[in-house]
Specification:
single chain; 407 residues; alpha/beta; Nucleotidyltransferase, domain 5; DNA polymerase, domain 1; 3 domains; 6-stranded mixed sheet; flat
Length: 407
């Protein structure tokens, strides 16, 4: 499919045209396909730079949320409709920023996962389920570009062109597989999830952090990360474009003692880095001057159990429980054609194995899973088997390979 069926609509950039679109979509019927394009890797944050909608009776709309940033009225007009999104959790935050929050949704990517389909990207799903090929060449484009090129807009419009048809086909498959109720629970959980809290110690996600072995150097990473983040926010640029992670790690490993020494490092020789050299070396100097008590801990605070690789020596009973439960959950996932992580999150299973309920029962395990956010269908499939594995933690032997043919 190379062109939208109804032609490429004009991008909405003014409030009067937006009012007409709101009226048209409010009067239309059925689910509404929704998508958003961001400028990840180019701009700071994850705001939407284009929002695409399609609904039977209203056609397709392309909205510029930079020109018309308040879309609360559109969100309200669509509040009674089911929203169809692909990988909904990726777009819900940027949609909420402009006032659009679904009460009900259908996630086509998650539907594909529940069906056990091998490839669940939008392009492969549309191809395997509907038989159409979509051109996906602009997914990583800088969508903050203005004006947006026509071929980019065509790509964006096609992303919602078949989304409702894909939803209908996947719903039918879910119903035939006996998984539609599971999907409804999953979709409701996504729609009801609170906005994600800011990550604690976000600097610990710096690529290459595993190379840093002491707390003073960790402090350098932290100070440089926050200095970079402040500048990236001011310039509305992706932090990696302001200072690469590799430059932060190299400064922490080298610990330059002067701005001149820092400027001699290959990663700081470029014009852009030399222009901000006082900022970068100031962050290193601040880290050097910190008293020991203010240095970051070597590992991030975590309220869960230690990594499972340490269990065999520290808690062999817990290691046995985890191995047995993993095997049983894997069997259940395979029997139902599910990815294991969609049946039960690894963290939920690890926590239960480390500290199982006492007294042990399927009901108690189910309550523990429920407290960790597991849905009822997941609990119904796994709680009894996991409780049995905890009670008798014997890992089943893998099936023997078939005997060689004598032919």
């Amino acid at each position: 499919m190379l062109e939208p069926r109804d032609g490429l609509p004009e991008v909405i950039t003014d409030s009067e045209t937006l009012k007409a679109v709101i009226a048209a979509f409010a009067a239309a019927t059925g689910p509404v396909a929704v998508d958003a394009e961001r400028a990840s890797g180019y701009r700071y944050g994850h705001r939407a730079y284009l929002i695409q909608l399609r609904r039977a009776g209203a056609g397709t709309a392309l909205i510029d949320p930079i020109a018309v940033p308040d879309l609360a009225a559109l969100g309200a007009a669509l509040s009674g409709a089911e929203w169809v999104l692909h990988a909904a959790s990726q777009d819900l935050a940027c949609l909420a920023e402009v006032g659009m929050r679904p009460a009900r949704l259908f996630d086509t990517e998650l539907a594909g996962r529940l069906l056990g389909l091998p490839r669940v990207g939008l392009g492969p799903l549309v191809d395997s389920v509907l038989g159409y090929a979509l051109e996906k060449g602009h997914s990583a484009a800088d969508w903050s570009t203005r004006p947006l090129p026509e071929d980019w807009l065509r790509y964006a419009a096609l992303d919602v062109e078949l989304l409702i048809e894909l939803r209908d086909a996947l719903e039918e498959r879910l119903r035939d597989a006996g998984k539609l109720a599971w999907a409804h629970e999953e979709f409701a959980a996504i729609a009801a999830a609170p906005q994600q809290e800011p990550r604690a110690d976000p600097w610990r996600r710096t690529s290459g952090l595993h190379r840093i072995r002491d707390r003073r150097r960790l402090a350098v990473v932290r100070q440089l990360w926050y200095a970079r983040d402040e500048l990236a926010r001011q310039r509305d640029l992706s932090p990696g474009r302001v200072l690469p992670d590799a430059a932060i790690i190299e400064a922490a490993l080298t610990m330059p003692t002067s701005a001149e020494a820092m400027s001699a490092m290959p990663v700081y020789r470029g014009r852009a880095q030399r222009r901000e050299l006082s900022r970068w070396f100031g962050a290193v100097a601040d880290a050097r001057a910190l008293p020991d008590k203010e240095l970051p801990p070597q590992t991030a605070p975590y309220d869960g159990p230690p990594p499972p690789r340490a269990w065999a020596t520290r808690q062999p009973d817990a290691a046995a429980r985890l191995a047995a439960a993993r095997a049983r959950v894997g069997e259940i996932a395979e029997a139902h054609g599910l990815p294991v992580e969609n049946l039960l999150t690894p963290d939920t299973l690890r926590r239960a194995a480390w500290q199982p309920p006492s007294p042990l029962s399927a009901e108690a395990v189910g309550e523990l899973f429920r407290a960790r956010g597991a849905r009822e269908w997941q609990i119904a499939l796994t709680a009894e088997a996991v409780a049995a594995a905890f009670a008798d933690p014997v890992v089943p032997e893998p099936p023997a390979p078939p005997a060689p043919s004598s032919a």
